[in-house]
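Hey everyone, long-time lurker, first post.

I ran two proteins through the pipeline my lab uses and got sequence/structure pairs for each. Pasting them in order. The first:
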Amino acid sequence: MQFIISLVLLMACSYLGYAFGNFYKLREQFLQDLVNFTQILKTEIGFSKEHLLNILKEKKYNFRPQFVSFLKTYTKCLEKEEILTLEALKTNLTSIYLEEKEQVEVHHLFSFLGTTDSMSQMESLSHYLVFFELFLKDANVQKKKYVGAYSKLGFLTGVFIVILLL
């Protein structure tokens, strides 16, 4: 019986370590999708000259589910002609993977889209792309640093608890 309890505790602590590390993987994936989306948007605005809502609705992109729900919520804001506020970004959009400074830049990008001519939008998208690539590099460094550390820490915590119980 004690062996089963020890095994369950070890597995639970290992899973908790994995779950904490998985946050950094998801954050990096979300930012990668954001960079890809910005590059696609820059291309679409520059060459197709379509309306922003048409670009978002008609084109099917291969993004992860978190980012797709982010885009769907933004598309709904555009359809209702609502102004995207930072509070709406924090509550309605799945931005739990973004830090405060990243949320501010994403808010600026999405509140700017569709408000000016295509040339100034392409220039601004280039500007935001630089920011998002820097955020992605930072997220990649954090992922490399914390994913393995949290997994190992979870396992070692489980081993420590099992040793205490014995």
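...and the second, right after it:
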Amino acid sequence: MTRLHSVFLLSALIGAAGCGSDETPRQPAAEPGVDRAVAPEPAGKAEEVKRPRPVSTRDGRFTRIPPDRIDTERREAAESFARRYEQSRAQGTFAILGDEATEGMRTSLTVQKQKEAQQEIEAAFGTFEALAFAEAWKVNASPGSTIYRFRATFTEGRPEIRVVHDERGRVSGFWIKPWRDSLDPPRPRKLPESQVNQALRDASLEFARSYLERRTAGVFEPLGRQATEEMRTALTPEVQQQTHAELQARFGEFQSLDYVEAYRLESVPGNTVFRFRGTFGKGRPEVRVTRNADGLVSGFWIKPWRQDLD
């Protein structure tokens, strides 16, 4: 649905990849990757959330699976995976993923990534104690994927632990995040111009314009200190060069950039989205810059313009 630290590591990676895609910058359905296991959601301490109101069987992009139609064997496998992972993390041993996970997950959720997330997860939720199954959902856009939601008990809160299986029953996604009844993240809130940080807006405009002008000139440089470490790691000169041809073919040469509006991401406290309308030789796409609570660039996209923020 931020650093959440202020933005998840994967969010930065997807943001960078989004430079050459018009897909919504969220976790891919087939290979959701890692979210909470990389960094805990920046919503502070997890609040005690009472379990569910009667819910609708459909929740936006997801469909709830009736209890009597849940694959018990796979549910138990998902629970075993989550419990084993959390217990090993709490003991400082850190699990090495095997054939129970997709290649994408094994690549993403390395022992090193787990170690990097350890301190932040404990700061947000404390120490893991117990786990209880809550519900299962299907991903409407990817019918082969199944989401298993567990309500965990930590010493400082009761967050969600979410395990996603692909059609073969392999773990393709894993999150630790504050519990919310709805799977769909809170909608971003459009900021009145009086509430927009003008300095950050102008800095974001300059960041995007400078990046696009360098790209047009064939110059691909490392991002500076105004970007998060994750963004600097994700949007390397090599990645910039790889996406250049695709963006050039789709939108043409960059010409100019105009500010349009700003949004606050309610799911990621402190994060602000600045939307710009680009003028290119072949169209007028959106150029989007996200800033975290520290004012650092934590996301960057170039995508076809849509009136509503997606």
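Reply from user beta_strand_b:
Welcome! Quick read of the second one: Confidence is low (pLDDT under 50) at residues 1-56. Residues 189-303 form a domain with the Nuclear Transport Factor 2; Chain: A, fold (CATH 3.10.450).
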